[in-house]
Structure formats: C-alpha cells, structure tokens
Amino acid sequence: MTLIRATDVVVRLGGAAILHGIDVELAGGEVVGLIGANGAGKTTLLRALAGLLPAAQGAIALGGRPLALLPRRELAQTVAYLPQGGASHWPVSVETLAMLGRLPHLGPWRGPCERDRRAVEAALAACDVAQFRKRTLDTLSGGERARVLIARALASEPRVLLADEPVAGLDPGHQLDVMATLRRLAATGAGIVVVVHDLTLAARFCDRLVLLDAGRVAAAGPPRAVLSRENLARCYGIRAQVAEFDGVPWVGPATRITALESDARP
Amino acid sequence: MRHTTALRRSIRAALALASSALLAACADAAAAKPERIVSLNICTDQLLLLLVEPARIASLSFFARDPAYSALAARAEGLRTNQGSIEEILPLAPDLVLAGTFTTRATVFLLRRLGYPVVEVPPETSFTEARANIGQVAGAVGEAARGVALIAELDQGLAEVPAAARRPLAAFYWANGFTSGRGTLANAVAEHAGLANLAAARGVRGIAQFPLEKLLVAEPDLVILGRRHDGAALANETFRHPALRHFLETRTAASVPDSLWVCGTPLVAEAAARLAAARDAALGRRP
Amino acid sequence: MTAAGSPWLLPSLGLGAVVFATLSLVVGPAAIPLPAAIAGLFSGGLDTAALIVREVRLPRTLLALAIGATLGLAGAALQGFLRNPLAEPGLIGVSAAASLGAVLVFYSGLAGLFAWALPAGGMAGAAGAVLAVNVIAGRDAGAMTLVLAGIAVTSFAGALTALALNLAPNPYATLEIMFWLMGSLADRSLDHVWLAGPFILAGGILLLTLGRALDALTLGEDAARTLGFDLNRVRNRLVAGTALGVGAATAVAGAIGFVGLIVPHLLRPLVRQRPSALLTASALGGAILTLAADIAVRLLSPERELKLGVLTALIGAPFFFYLVLAWRRRLI
Predict the structure, then answer these.
(1) Which residue of B103, B198, B204, B217 to mutate against C (max C Cβ within 10 Å)?
(2) Residue of C83, C225, C230 with shortest CB distance to A89
(3) B150/B222 same-domain check
(4) Which domain holds residue B264?
(5) Is residue B190 part of a domain?
(6) Structural domain includes residue C4
(7) Is C220 on the interface with A (CB under 8 A)?
C-alpha cells in the first residue's frame, strides 16, 4: 500500500527552484534509496517529504491525504525524520534521548506510560544499543551514536522513516549494522527512504533506487536498472564498472570523466 | 524669667549692632564697592539679594529663580542667571565672583587664573558658620553694615522661637530616604527648635540614607518630610510607602519648604519657628 | 520521563526557598526576633514590628522570590531554545531594554495614566529586545553572535536610558539611574507586588509550558519540528513569557543580571541535562539565589548603599569569565 505519493513537486529555496517536478512513491515494507550527486536535491526532497519544506507546486500525500493539511501531531506520529549529521545538543543519556521519540505520542499532561517505555525498549533492542542506556552520546563511538539516533526515530513507531545519510562517516562494519536495522524496520511494514552515497551499499539494501540529477528524477526503479553506466556517467560524471555478485549490483572503481571527454561523447 | 532673658538679649544685640555698624561704616568708606557681582551658588545668591541692590548684580545662579529652593525668587525676577560656565561669566566682566566650595570648581579655577577676584563661601552647617558667611559676603560686597544687621535679624528671629517643656523625637526623611544628621544646618535648626534629631542620635553624620525600618522602629513623634518633586521621580515613591503612611496615621508629619533652610539666611529662623509649631503639635498628640 | 535526576532535587530546592524566605523576613536594620516577625505577619495589627514585617520585609521577600524565579526560568528557557550556554535575560539585553521601557513610561508621566502602565513599559522593552536578538542572531547562531547581539542591545538601551534621564526634569536623575541600571529591592511595597505579580505569574506559566519543546530541540530544529512542534509558536511563547516576566520584574526592581546565567548552569548536571526538568529547578534556584543576594545586601550594607544588581554582578561576572574559559573551544 502506498504510504507517500509525491506528484510533480516543485520546491523553492531562497527564490531558486531546487526540485523541478518530482514524482516519487513510497510503499510500506520497502526501503527506497535516494541517490544523486551533491547538490542534486536529495536533502531538499527528504525535507519536503517530512513536511519541513512546502511544495511550491505539486502535491505530497501521506496515506492518501495531503501532507500540508495533516495535523502536526498526526504527522509526527506517522513520519520520523533523521536529519543529516544528527547530534544531541545537550549530553543527555541514551535512554532519555530515545524517549524523545515518544514525544508525538505523549498526552499534554501525563508523562511516559508503560506503552511508551515498551516502545523505547523495543527500539533500543532493535538497534542493539540497550546496553548503553545510561551513557551519554559523547561517550559512544560514531556507529553507536548513529544507532542511538535511529533508535530515537524507531521509538515513535513510525509508518515512514526518512533518514538523511545515516551511515556517513561510519566504518564498513557499522554501516552494515545500520542498514540491516533499516531493513528489519521495513520488514515490519514501515516504508523507509534513505539518502546514501555508497552506491553498492544502496544497491544491496534498497528495494528501489531514485536517482536525482539537478532537481529532477533521472531514474527510478530496481537498483539493477538505475545503476547503469549511462546513468552513472550522466549524473555523477564518473565512468564505472557495474557487475553483479550474488544477484546484487556492485559498482566498481570509478574514474572521473573529464570535461573534454564529456564534450566529445555522442 | 523669659522676659528678662529676651530683654537682656535685645540690649546686647543693640550694643553689638551699634559698635559694628560704626566700624563697618568706616570700612565701607575706605574700600570701593564692586558693581558687577556674579554669584555661582544658591546660598551666595540669597545673601547677595539680601545685601545689595539689583543694579549691582550681574548674574545669579539658575537656582535663584526657582521658588523651590530660593525664598527670594521674586526679588530675582528680571536678573540674569547662569549655569556656572566660564563662557557665560567672562562677557559680564565681573569685578567680584561669589562661589560655593563644592560646585563649579573648574570655572572658579579658571577665573582665579585669569585674575578675577573670587570669594569662596563654604556651605553653612551651623548658625556660627551662617553668621560667619554673612559677614564674609557682606565684607566682600562692601556692605558690612548691612551684614551686621542681617546677623542681628537672624539672632533676633532665633531668640523668638518658643521653648517647650519636653524634647520630642523627630526624624528627617528626605526624597530617596535621605536624612540630615550631625553637622548639618537642618540638624542645628532642629536642635534649636527643641527637637531631638533621630539621625544625630543614631550617629549619622552629614546627609546620608537612612533605612525606613530604622526610622519606624525608633517610633519618632514627629516626621519631617521632604518636598515632593513636581514631575515623575522615584524619589517621590519614598513618601508613598504604605508602611510610612500607616505609621503617620498616629504621628505628626510636617514639611518645611527647602527654600527657608537650604542656606544660612535669617529665614532659617522662620524654619525653626515652623519646626517648633510642629513640635507643639506632636507634643499635643502624645502627652 | 525516566532518568530525571534525583527525586530529591525539587523538594530540596523548595525547602531552600522557604528557608531563605523566612530568613528574609527576619533580617533587616530593625532587630525583630522570628516569633515577633511571624506574629506580625499574620496579626494584621499596626504596631511597628507588624508594620515593618508586613509592609517592608514581606514585599521585599515576595519580590525576591518572584523576580528570582522569573530570571532563573527565563535563563533556562533562553538557553534551551537558543541552545546556547550564554543566553540569559541580562546578557542578551532583555533587562536593559526593559529598564528603558520602564524609564520612558515613568519619567514621561505615562505611568499615571493607568495602573499597569509601568510594567507595560517594561514588558514592551523586554519584548523588543528578545525580538531584536532573534533577528540579529538568527537561527542556529553561535555563542559569539548571540553575545554580540546582546552587547548591541544593552549598549543601545543603556544609552537611551541615560538620555531619557538626562532630559527628564528630575533633580535626582543621577541617583535614580543607579536604580534602573543596577536594580534594588529596597523600600519596595506591596503595591509593587500587585503591580508586577500577575505578569510575572503569567510569564512564568508560559515559560513552563515550553518544557517538551525544549527537550525536542536537543535534537536540533528540524528534528524538533518533525516531532510535532511548531517552532514559531514555541518562539512566540518564549518571547511572550520572557517579556511578561522579566519586563514586569525590571519595571519594579530595576535591571538585575546574571541570575539567569548562573542558576541553570549550576543545576543542569543535577537534572541530567534535560531542558524540561531544568525549567522548574531554575525557577526555584533563581528564587533562592536572589533571596540570598538580597539578604546579603542587607547584612553587608544596612544603610542601603549597595544595589542588588551590584551583588549579582559581583558573583555573576566571574562566573561568566569562568564559563568563557571552560567553553572556549565550543563557543567559537
């Protein structure tokens, strides 16, 4: 079932149009990878889907209803957003941080109840950070920190998770941990959009890829289809080998296409 | 017995008057009198207005025309006033400048440097000093005889202040909670009017702030309040404090215009007389 | 929420406030023993001891409680919202601007127009300052920008206050400017309590409702928005709460600084860094600090020469210095 449908969305920032007529869909149970060169508009699209940026034109619908008209609280309960480079400003404990994810569900006057505590416990366990519950973020490693922030997002039991580069700066092992966590979440029926730069990682863990180029959708579909040499050359300006291992596309070492070459290409 | 004391006093005064007038007249005849006198200070203003005719006054301080501070404001009508700056004074080409010892220091310094005759008169804090100042200014303006007469007027007025059987406790409460303790003219006037000054009793010297609590706990019979400023001022809040208002419901409050006793002129006796009247009211209230 | 810090913190702070409030009723130039003070408080009589305790010391105590609470609360709220350890009403210019507003209303005679004109002036000034700092410092401003914005607002407000007092036909201007710039609780009456009290209460309630939003802001503005918080409304509540509380407080007691800086910092470790828990704790802590400072003023200079703001500055400025040293790397 379609969770999010964005139709012909145009988003402007500071007068300039960043996204030109984007069509994107997210269904429950799938992980969609959002890829593209720097400045292609990935973060902007993610923020628009999260309701942080208004669509100047076009429509974004969540569960069939227009995003802009949804009550703030309901939107917060349904969609969880993980900003890029997420950090915690005050060094609170992991437990407290994860509990912040329950804020959209808390009643105005009551504190967390049993239901909230169980959700937080489940989230901590799912991200394998329960053993750090009393520690503060600044005492954890990069990978552990990333998992804690995801646990915060999971704690709100969202139907949609929008993650902006959650694995940036993590070592390969931790990258795999995080992506595996996202897959597990998708298995419960949630829809996930994740911005990722490592193309092989994206190919391995995402059901579909959406390739953005200068604010437009250059390609969308299964990784095998999107990660073609032509698309890579056009959108990233690289010449790369694309192979397959165990049925998963693998993008090999790339070389930069210089300006002369790109002019010479037919 | 009161009559004989008063009579004796009057005879002594008359004798003193006669002899000093004779001496003074000789002195006056000898020196040339200043014709363009400038005053930079409220108290020298008052003395000047009392001692010489307006034609000889080149300029007075701007306080002279403010009835709140100057009892002789009417007499100062039409006379030029100054703010104490050297630029105002030099064009007047004064042949005598009267100044206080605390204000307009730079101007006084410059005038002295430029060779103008400057007489500095310290603020009076007692009747003795008041008399000395009158004499000093009178001598400087060449009206020594008149000065002697003024002193006699002051003494006469003070002598006429009636005494009382008891000395009630009085507190001065000026704007912003200031009071006058030992070593102030107000204190001298209070003592002469037969009052015990609370601030002096508590060891306050000069003009200083006095906590409201201390005033209330001493339970003075009479509170002499300062003048309310016309416009808006935090100072006025002092007099509106509910604790003070409640306290004054069972005590006597009085007010004496600043203009009477801010300087040591014969009008000080009038201030003493008013305080004595307030004293009698306070005594009448609580036998 | 779990891990909220020691459950004893708030009761201890509350007890501390009660202890210092009682001390405040007993300390003063007139020696009145505690039993007489308590009796005088409730007797309603007009004897001197009762008069002093009820009309001189009680207003002072109530104002110190209310103003201290508001300053602590505003400091915690501003630090939480701006995510900046140097935010507090004094440093970012709110107190100075509130002083200006009150001075303009008072010396122009407008204060007589209607009962609450004076606190209204203070509140207008305070609101202007918070908005100005928001505009200058913008979103996600670093500490440097914030302090500079605060310096700009404080300097401007201070200059205009001096100008206003210079132009006012008031012979006591030079003395009174000390009150507005340095703050004092001397000779305040119950009139002042009624004048400022309702606004301080309203402001306090507004600020206390910000707890959850401030917790969410731990994760940054975008995450907080997606957690369901309308940051514009949060900011408006912050401005309104600070303006009401600090504005009214300054209108009756002058500018008192540094309380909102010191208290949240000292208490933050005790509430395990959580902004929402810090709000209530800072309100109580601010009340205690201000009461203590006011009692100290009465003990150190019973003849009322020392202004309350001087004492808080004497404690606060070295603390500010220490903060800059400790947070040097984070601040730039």
Answers:
(1) B217
(2) C83
(3) no
(4) 169-285
(5) yes
(6) no
(7) yes
> ipTM score here?
0.90
What CATH number is given to the structural domain containing B259? 3.40.50.1980
* Mean of pLDDT over chain B: 88
Residues B150 and B198 occupy one common structural domain: no
- Residue C152 domain flag: yes
C190 contacts B242? CB cut-off 8 A: yes
Does B203 contact chain C (CB < 8 Å)?
no
Q: Do C219 and A95 touch (CB under 8 A)?
A: no
**pLDDT surpasses 80 at B30:** no
Residue C224: other Cβ atoms inside 10 A:
24
pLDDT digits (tens, 9 = 90+) for B174-208: 988 899 999 999 999 999 999 999 999 999 999 99
Q: Which residues of B26-40 are buried (b: 16+ CB within 10 A; e: fewer)?
A: eebeeeeebeebbbb
Interface check for B4 against chain C (CB to CB < 8 A): the answer is no
Measure in Å the smallest separation between the Cα of B235 and chain C Cα atoms. Answer: 7
Quick one: DSSP state of residue C185?
-
The residue of A81, A96, A116 whose CB has the most chain C CBs within 10 angstroms, and thus the best one to mutate to test that interface, is A96
User: To 5 degrees, how large is the angle CA A19–CA A23–CA A29?
Assistant: 120
C259: containing domain: 9-331
In a domain, C320, yes or no: yes
pTM of the predicted model, to two decimals?
0.86
CATH of the domain at C99: 1.10.3470.10
Q: H or E stretch including C182?
A: helix C173-182
Residue C229 counted as domain residue: yes
Cα–Cα distance, C135 to C149 (Å, whole number): 9
Tell me if B173 is assigned to some domain. yes
Residues C281 and C287: their CA atoms lie apart, in Å, by 10
